[in-house]
Fold each of these.
Amino acid sequence: MNLWQAKLLNRATRLRLAHRHLPDEARANLSVLDGLSSRAPVLAQRYVVVDLETTGLDHTKDRVVSVGAFRVVGGHIRLGEVFSEFANPGRGIPVESIKVHGITPDNIRDARPALEVFRDFLGFLGRDIVVAHFARFDMFFLNRVMRAQYGMRLQNLVVDTVLMCRAALIEPDPYGQKKGAKRCSLDALAARYGLEVPERHTALGDAMATALILQRLLPEMEQAGWKTLGDLVRVAGVQ
Amino acid sequence: MSDFPLPRIKDFLQSVVPFDSMEETELQRVVGLMDLAYFPRGEVIIQAGEDPSKNLYVIMNGSVRVTLPRQSGEELLIDVRGEGDTFGALSLLQGELALFTVTAQEDLLAFMLPDEPFRTLVRDNPVFKRHFSFSLARNIDAVRRAADHHTTQMTGTETLGLDAVLTGSRVHELMSKSLLTCLPATPVKAAAILMTQRKVGSIMVCEPGGRPLGILTDTDLRVRVLAAGVAPDVAVAEVMSRSIKAISPQAFAFEAMIEMARHGVHHLAVTEEQRLVGVISDHDLTMVTGSSPVGVMKEVAKVSSLEDLAGLPRRMNRVMETLLRLGGSAEYMLDVLSEFNDRLTMRLIRLTQSAMEHKGLGPPPVQFSWLALGSAGRREQALHQGQDYAVVYANVPPDREEVVHTWFSEFARRMIEGLSSCGFKGTSEAVMNDALLCCRSEAAWEESYLAWIGGGHPQALAMAAKYFDLRAVYAETSFVETIWNKIFNAIEANRGFLDRLRMAGSQARPPVGFLRQFAVDSDGGYLDRLNLEEVALQPVVEAARIMAMDQRLRQTNTLERLGAVTRLGLLKDRMAEDLYEAFSFVTLLRIARRLEENLNGKDGGAYLDPADLNRVQRKMLKESFQVVSKLQEFTAQRYAQ
């Protein structure tokens, strides 16, 4: 994936949806890549670091129960720009999942459905670059809702901190042995950087942990020679 | 969103001075205005000489070095700051070019509060205002001192904000308000009936306007009425105790304790604008504290054997603990302790004298005085510290000298044994030999003093300095009064003595600050233990001694000396206030440490592990060190020859 490909796919989606009636938030999302330059420095970009908690790990059946996100601008985490909301999955939460994230049916009884929560999240996200740890997982859930609702997937650039970590910190793995995989887990990275992660395994706590890791990975990427947005998308972009 | 969703972040800020003073909702609002930034090790965050900082930084994790670049290219370390410390305020508030370079010494995670909201906080929140105007002044001062080591700036600092730390229970919280009073003309019998009905042991006697005149207690009824055969219809005014002491309802509980101890009374009238509003008894105090200094003090005078006397210091420890918990000030605590030590010494002198008479060694051959020297002479003794003393006996003809000296040597030897069994340190042979040296005639002592002043080498003076903190605990002679005049006159003729005495003192500079479990000294080295006495107290004691002697002042107590030289204009008021707070704070810390050690049954010596200090203590200690450095520079400049 590179920025040029992303823009091409975006143009195709625009053509396909040109004559369909779309809500404002979806129409706005179609133009988020406009004006992005592959030569822009990575550190100066606007990012939204997101984490989802779900009813389980199967993206075909399971549902989102919580969305947490922080905005990172110029390498600074904006503590006042926080997105944190429970979503009602419309079904029970398996005990195994409750054990992980501690979200109980009581917590989500009065929560809004995921559709409404995502609509607000789109507003919060704006044109910023989405960052998540193991981003494909979160994107499955986000895009499923996007497709069902608007007939398209999320148009923003999405980068994965696991891929950034592999590129910047772990030696190349040409034979796909995935020796480095465990070293890129959220806990391993937090330990590597000596981070005390507050409220781990809540959507917002994990989003904070990912944001703290992003803060450190960005300068490491620069050091490794990937200094521009084009580099970042090429190395760590997932869509 | 009503609640900041990551409680740990808020909790962290809640532990940071001055954010800890904020209301919960206000803190929520301020957290929302902050960014959390990361700076890799070595990154320059603020560059001296460039635009002012646009943020206040609060360190969450990691540390920074604050340095001042110099023309020569080297950097002067001003401070090292770690978790919970702030930086950037100085240039931000002043709006001038940054004075210091701030560099990440380790990977740094810091909160950034932007310019505008920070200014608003400093303007509207008095705690912020005080906190930042305070460190502002200090920082500017640090620059001036660093920039020109020979220029001493004695102005521009605020007093240490100790008041908030030293709060404790107040008298009005503990006093009994259900007052039993009567007029002076009330018959004794009527007063006794009132006391019986209300089941109390005392009744206050007041003027019709409410001003207390005296108190009638159960004891008075027994001693002054029944046993004295006074008729029950006599007016209470005739038999009441008139020595009623008054205290303000706003006074601290420990002040009430000290008043009682000082006057040997069990009740104090609590008065407001001369009107009686309550009564506080040592019972009220012991109810909340479990021990009272009055009891221990009185006991000293009653004790008739050395064994009983030796048990009292342990009780005194409990009293000090109580005072500390009540938030007693250092000055008062030292007062109580030194009063106790004096009484103990007096009692020991009596017991020793009578023991010697029993042994057939006879009474003292001539009149003498028992002098306290050093910390005891200054009334600054910590618990169980060694006591320096001197015995001065009246001059005798040469043929009697040996007999007299032998008697007093034996006396001193027994006294030292007694003191050490009461927990005062020092029974080694050296001390015993010292004992013999410390018993001398007035003429011999005078000769020593004049020799020190006339030509004592700084090395010799280092040992002799304590002799200039002399105070008579037991005086049959007027030696102390006469020797001071001779000392002052000798100094007049030998001004160089003051500088030699200064050189004899501690030359070490206090640390510049703290980082985690270390103190950071002025060369950027790390210290894992601190001798508070050496780095923070001793320099002040020495400077005060020199300045007081320079001004012919007879005070020996360091705070009194500082107060007196300030009244004479030698020290600026602000400097004096800072010194007072610094000295008090360090003293308090020292007392607390001693008690803790006693409690745990270990003796850590004079050393303090900086890791044991909490955030506020570190800050206070750091400010204290800065004041002490300034004082050292001041005396160096004034007395260096």
Amino acid sequence: MSSCRKYRKMMADALYQELKPHRQQIFDAHLASCSQCAQEFKELSWTLRVMDRRRAPDVDPAYWEGYWNLLSDRLPKDKPGTIRPDWRHLLSPGAIPVRPAWVSLAAAILLVATGIFIGQSGFFSRLETGAPVQATVFDPALVAEFNQLASSYLERSKMVLMGLDNFNPRTDDPETLNISRQRSLSEELLLQGRMLRNHQVTTADPRLQMLIDEIERVLLQVANSGGEDPLWTVTLVQEGIDNNSILLRISLVEIDRDKEPAETKEPAVKTSSILT
Amino acid sequence: MESHEQGLVQRVQEGDSEAFKELVEYSQARLFQLAMELTGDWDDAEELSQQVFIKAYHGLSHFRGEAKLMSWLYRIMMNTYIDASRKERTRGWRMRATTDEDSPLEPFVTEAHTDNPEARTAAHQIQDHINEALQALAPQQRSVFIMRHYHDLSLKEIARIMGLSVGTVKSQLFRAIRRLQKELHFYRAELGLEEQS
């Protein structure tokens, strides 16, 4: 029954008594009238009772002594919780060596130039395709829709991530971060990303799919960050962006897309012919 | 946040080194258990859990106490684990390489508290079955199930810890339980379900 699918989605909540009272009533009423769902729910409940019989870990107490000794040797000698990278301690004048502006500018130009060079050389495309390339022909209307969606998504994601990546906890005012705005933007982008990932043209482009996945992981950190220190969220997000070179990879995809003529902007990796 | 946790965190934030040791003692068993369940290897679990404490040591000044201390530590663990897994994709954590002799949960299987050899064997067997069923789950499903069922975290907390939407966590949890049901089907008779289906 198609309505049963709806109630199956409620089962995980119901098993852990997390349904709101009115939904619980609706759920109970369905189980009373549907023997199949009632049986399934009963079996799942019993499965959890079996899983309850698993015994908790029983680690020898002596192990924890050695554990602490090992850990304390690896901890810095400063006092806990008050050490770097706590930005508050870095606000004092002279705490951070000031880098001349021209050094930052030169580094930025070098980074962009390297990105353009790598993008133009097609280095990543060659690395990731491997197999012989077979041309894909998509419906032009589909391609136009894809182009609009992809450009908007990549551009907006880049702006949001750059804003967070450029935030300097040591010098910038946390108030300017406006984390609630960042959260709602991230939520919008998550929806947009899902639409893009499921788009027919995207499904033929593993590189773009991978990038969307990486961007999604970072955006989820922001979207789910309610209630915690915004600076901690920023630290996690910056780690995610840097570890995966997300901004550079967005730029590379954009450069690849710009190189192709507007009417045939298609994924860099062409694997199969969908509409011929 | 519980007042005990709050007090501990406050003392650590004030620079009390002894309080950090207390914080480790307070949370080490649960963190180590989760690390063990994630990595499936004693050494990896030790390394992963210690990395979490080192990050917590640095990050406690950022911790304001809106979230539970354990949720915060779990979140650091999941991030560390996912990052490490991604970096070491080719080698991976050793959790996948499990055999009967080398079960990742083996150190947790203790003798049943009974003198009856038959009962002890049966109890031991149930532990084996449960552990095997858990190992049959996909890593993400296993993480979600373990955090919900054994660590009593809400779906929302798990979503935040794992960087997933609540909907995804819910469907992963449901799939996990259904898979466990299949893996443990031979308990149907014992549970009185056999004749009803």
Amino acid sequence: MALGQRIGRGRRQQKTKQVDRSDLFDEEFLRQLELLQVIARRLIRGRQRAERKTRKVGSGLEFADHREYSPGDDIRNVDWGVYARLGQTLVRLFEEDEDLPLRLVVDVSDSMLTKDGQKLIYAQKIAAALAYVGLAGLDRVGLTAFSAKVHETIPAIRGKGRIFRVFEFLKNTQIGGPTDIYGGCKRVAAQSSQPGVTVVLSDFYDLEGAFDGLNMLRFRKHEVVAIQVLDPIEANPVDTGLRGDVTLVDVEGDDTRDVTLSASLLESYAEAHERFCTHLANKCRSRGMPFFSASIDEPFDDLVLRIFRLGGVLR
Amino acid sequence: MNLAGWALAELGVVFAVGSGVITLLYLLRMRRRQVVVPFAALWDQVTRESESRRLWRKLRRLFSWLVQLLLLALVCLALGDPRPEVWLRDPATTAIVIDTSASMAAAADEDGNTRLTLALERARAEVEALGPADHALIIAAGSEVSVPAPITGEAGTLLRALEEDVAAGPGEADLSRALLLARNALSGRSSPRILVLTDGALDGPALDAVGRCTARGQLEGEARCEVFEIGAEHEVGNVAITAFAARRYPSNHDKVEVLVEVQNLGEQPARFELRVTADGLPVGGKQLELAPGARAREVLPKLEAARERLVAELIALPNDRESAESLGPKIDDRAYAVIPPLDPMEVVLVTDGTNLFLEAALLTLDDYVRLTTLTPSEGDPSNPAIETANVVFYDIADNPLPDPLPDTNLVIFDPHRLDKTPVPVAKLKDLVSPRLSEQKKDHPLLEGVVFKDVNMHSGDSFDIDPGDVALVSHLGDPIVVLREAEHGMLLIGFDLRSSDLPLRTAFPLLVANAVDYFGMREAGFVAAIPIGASRDLALADFGVPGMDVSLLEVTPPDLDPDDDEAPEPQRVRAQDGRFRMRALIPGVYTIAVQDGDAEGSVVEVAVNQANAAASNLESRLDEATVPEASRAGEPPDPAPLSEGPLWTLIMLIAVTLIAIEWATYHRRKTV
């Protein structure tokens, strides 16, 4: 394989958004999703009920608590038994059944487009799978594609039949632009009237904004799940055979740097990349945010099942 | 160094254009490849650490550019076809004549190098200086002339021949034939040159040959003749065995008498041991000390030696470095001898038959004496028995002695009985009842003989001349006299019949001593054959009556007795009882007669260097023989390359450089 193909064939080619997504969701993929949905529901059912609930009290059927009667309360909720025994006028409170949204946030920046956009395609497949499982579970599912230039959103939808809209969105959304995780997360938070489970799929190649963006969502009461999509060649380019004097061009900007690539330098890069990923994962986990690292070499359905096994994404 | 191909100006243009193109291509090559990376910020972190190596990277680029220019320069140089000066001169042919005589084995310096070692070094230098069109041949001039390497331009062949086929041997250098061969070999060749490598210790013919060679070398059109003298400045001693022979005693075949001649040819006194061995066992020896130039003839009597082969050796005294150094090369410190067979002596007894004691004493010696008894009338010198006799005893009482006396060894009793006698020793006076009061005890004739108390009636004393030996005397008057001339004459001045000597044990001893003494005078030492490539020899000299012999088989000495492989015999033609023998190795040769009446006869012959001239290590080269102009100078410098055009080597270097550059480029060592 040519050297340039390993990391990037050329700056212009990488930034043209020529990722072929026409066959992204074919019949085979749909069958995989159906199977995945069955397996995933079995995993989830073994842990909790199918529907998602809020923690609010309201008009549900399941008793939650008592409180003092206030004028204006529905008199039908007064607990007459308590009144008869204790002489106090208390009203019964019930947990309110409410479907919480699952929001899938996909990074579509240029860094996700290297190697014919394999990282983006991988992230979109995961997003589609999670969306399918969510829609099949009567959850509301919303999607957002973001970069510094792009921010497209599907409002929360419900019902398994809407999965094709999800597919259409993922196939046709704009791609490209620099990575801006913090900005993307910030806009997601602003658009979300109701916090829910927010799954962020990205390579997180943003030294400053990666964790800040995720942390900001958490601050807005989102239950954040981070899935880092990585290309193993990018993570460890030692075996690419790339050596000598080259000009490194940033795929997301005009920054260039003349370097002499050597085995030791490539090893240093691999170690720095490993440190970066580990540091990000540790910070996320320390704040209760599940963090998954996914290599594009790994089948996407394996990753999805791994996510469901750990729990927290769907209930 | 000269350019035989493109001119320097043309090469300059090619180099200038080529270097311009290379520089342009190099600049194009230096354009960096662009590699797109998804996470430049992380790359910034790690590349910041390697900034310090930027200078080395620049140097690597410069080095790579210089390598390209060097490659271009090498190609230009190859186009120029450079050739050393030595290649451009006319091709020369050199005949290297190496003296391989015995003296070349002498030490030539303090490091222990022999003269031959230095000669070979010089020869190697000459070979290594040959240009690609030059030729050389190597001639080894020892006792026999050989050509280890014929005319060739291949230095490897010449060097191999010098390494393997040139060694010092015994004998003199036959430079006459060697130089004649060299001159013939160089005939018709361009720039002929003869280089003689010798120590100058040559015999007359060799010196003459060198002188002729150098003289002709001065002439136009003749081969230049140069002499390189080796080891002249290093003084070295040498002691040589110049003669060695042995013979048996007629009366005792188990004992031998050995004659050894030793000469000190060095400038310093020499101390050493002379040792004679038979089959490796010492049978005799003597410690000797010789002044410079002195020669000693040593006779070692009555050595126990039942075998027929003897070896004489000069051995350094133990723990005496000077002794070892004074002996010089070992090649002449060893000599061989074959003890010749001893025929019975022909003894004639002329007697009137009245004294049987004498005949009886002679008959006891019948193992090695063939006795013929004659009457006084038959004792004439013309008698065939007397003509061939080794010793004649005259005991004829009142009968007259023949006049003249036979020309052989004589023992005469009472020679002055008659007034007229042919005996050359005059009578001094008559003696009555003489007493044998004095006797020369240390004389061989009187060994074991005691005349004390011998009684006699009368006798005569002799009037001896200077040189005569008075063996026994009566109060100072010689009564038994030995006269040494061409033949010996023992005169006993009394009649046996008038004394009691025959009754004493001294009598048979005296008779035996007389036979031995005269037998030893007659039976001379058989000299060894000197070393030579073609020695003319007569079969009769070895006791083989072979006028009809036409074929001989000569077996050279076995140099390595421990080896099972016996030396290969050589077939030699003989004619009229003579033959030519190739004797190049000292030792004992075996000659077997293959046909004729003597078929089956086997004789042994010793071959020795035994030549004082060959052992003389002193150079005899002088200005007249070798003028200064004909003396070879310092060794030439080795040719840069002896074979092949230089441009191929340059291209080989260029290709190697390309390979190295290619390999390092692909390992990112160069850019």
Amino acid sequence: MLSFRGRVHKFGDNIDTDIITPGKWMHEGMDILKKHAFEAVRPNFYQLVKAGDILVAGRNFGYGSHREQANAVLKSLGINVIIADSISRIYYRNCIALGIPAIIYPGISKQVNEGDELEVLLHTSGGKIVRDDNWSVAISPMPETVFTMLEQGGISQLLKLYLKNERSS
Amino acid sequence: MGMTIAEKILARCAQKQRVASGEFVNAAIDLIMFHEALAMTSQIIEEAGSVEGIPRVWDARKVAIVLDHYAPPPGKNSKMANKHAKIRAIVEQLKLPYFYDVNSGICHQVLPESGLLRPGQLVVSPDSHTTLYGALNVAGTGIGETEAALILLTGELWFMVPPTIRIKIEGKLSKYLNGKDVFLEVARRFGSEIAQYKAIEWCGEAVSDMSLDGRMCIANQSVELGAKFSFFEVDEKTLSFLKGHGVREISPVYPDSDAVYEEEYSIDATQLEPLVACPHSFADIKPAEELQNVPIQQAVIGCCANGRMEDLAVAAHILKDKKVAPKVRLIVTPASSEVYTMALAKGYIETLVKAGAIVTNSCCGPCIGNIGTLADEEVCLTSTSRNFKGRMGNPQASIYLASPATVAASAITGKITDPREWFNA
């Protein structure tokens, strides 16, 4: 079981990777990039986030370019979990690769508000999202492959192991 | 029960007799393509403990590299120049045979021309528009740089076998329309998530009639519909393109007649009209006719979505003996040096330059603001792949997106224009 607790930052539909990480700042390093994350729709977002927060979004979150910086920047801002009505395919893959739990729950953006405190529980047998006022929803079981990768902290951990084994063999 | 194209390719790569949608498999990769993203993948491997960089690759003949996004590095961008230098050093050190430097063109045209793509392959790349290879019956899809690192070392990646939808484009497409209009119609009618996590198989009379250029445009833009793969079946046109680029062993993959599709959609090509996606996504798509009062300051034709011969031909046809409006900048970017050379021979480039166009080298520049950055409040009409906020370097600007014909006609009038009356008899 993986569990998280945090405060919600809510975004709308079609938040694309150019919004999350503007191309203009993509190659300037994470310290600079994170100051520009979401600036077209929410300037200074980096000052509003604290470690452990949860990002909730509408449909098609992470739409667009494959750029993995758009996933890494959330990690570097301290966002622990992403829950959206739907998540674009490559963005979803990259979340798993980087060990960021990403949950697709159609309708979540209508049920959760900015600033809500949520608890999120994830498992291969199912999970749930719980709010302080006892509101909760069940989420579908996570595929084994995905859960295992998240538990290990993403592909980068596999990569470390692989390189270590290679050096010692 | 039969299999779809996606199921057949993933079954082969996972060494299984059959797979079904929803199943997770570990698949052997036939080819991985990198552009500048190779620098980041190398950095990921360095940070994972291999301080000396990428120690080796699983199979050097299955790795292709094309430098195109910052080709050559623009605007005193020495960071990017250093990344290019680093990539060239990696290529030399690992003896990677398929390297295409900044003079080659855009990866999604260079790769089809390279002869490295063959029907039925599973090809990945840290670039979302990799779905384009489906025009050649290849399972092409975008991944991230970290996944790419794992593939370089192991040659494998996990996949969920996607459900497949079939989209039939019936009837004949008029000469005023492009693959772009077909894609825009699908997004307008069915929404930009119609293929989320799914494979698409395209079929129908308009698809059979369509050139490879048109199919590549549709397969490229399919990622904007959410698609994991976007397949076209192999026909005489595919075979002639592949053979013309030195591909010999060709084993097309066709779906079984009893393959299971999640959904089938149909569009009547004879009812289509030139369409425009309004800023800043594909959620708001309107007929060009309804937007005729929108003035533009920049127009772009080219890049990986619409920088091919058919696109340059239609632009030259409309702009012949005409002038780009005085307050408009028209930027034209052929998709590759091969395309550029062919367009020169046909006289298209001369026509476009005489009309007042700026013809750039083949690179991704105009699509991502590395060439032709927009000013605050400016409006651009582009035939590149995306109209996202800030895509061309300025979130205060607006980007509309349409076919090369619509962009060419609009460049002449200085406002969004339905191209139909601009075609000569």
